[in-house]
Amino acid sequence: MKLILIKDVKNLGKKGEIINAKPGYARNFLIPKNVVIEATKENMATWEENRKEQEKIERENKAEALELKKKIESETLTLMAKAGEGGRLFGAITSNDIAKALKQEYKINIDKKKIELDENIKEAGMRDINIKLYPEVNATLKINVRPQS
After folding, report:
1. Helix or strand holding residue 64 (H, E)
2. Range of the domain at 30
3. Is 66:139 a contact under the CB 8 Å cutoff?
């Protein structure tokens, strides 16, 4: 039986996918839970329109992410932190600190979860930080951590 998923179903597929399921499984489990609709001609036409609209939105979002990537990679973020001898910081710079600094200096809103730090920054110096902007679109941010005088 051909069905269109209207919600994500674990081990079956994601919203908007067309799946094949056994008639009993569809009638007794999937349809009563309102996670699928039958793939009739009308539903397939609606699904096709929605799919085209989703693809358009995806292209726009990816284009925005690529623009943001250019902006991020053209800048160097300078962060000041109290440090002891040898450039060792008192405390650490976290992904949250980086996100706040990006927002303050460049008006770029990035979720701290998208900033990939292996561990918090504990020493002064230059670093390259990877930021996930969109699936398949990553930006590299240059960060200069300077000791505060």
Report:
1. helix 41-73
2. 2-61
3. no
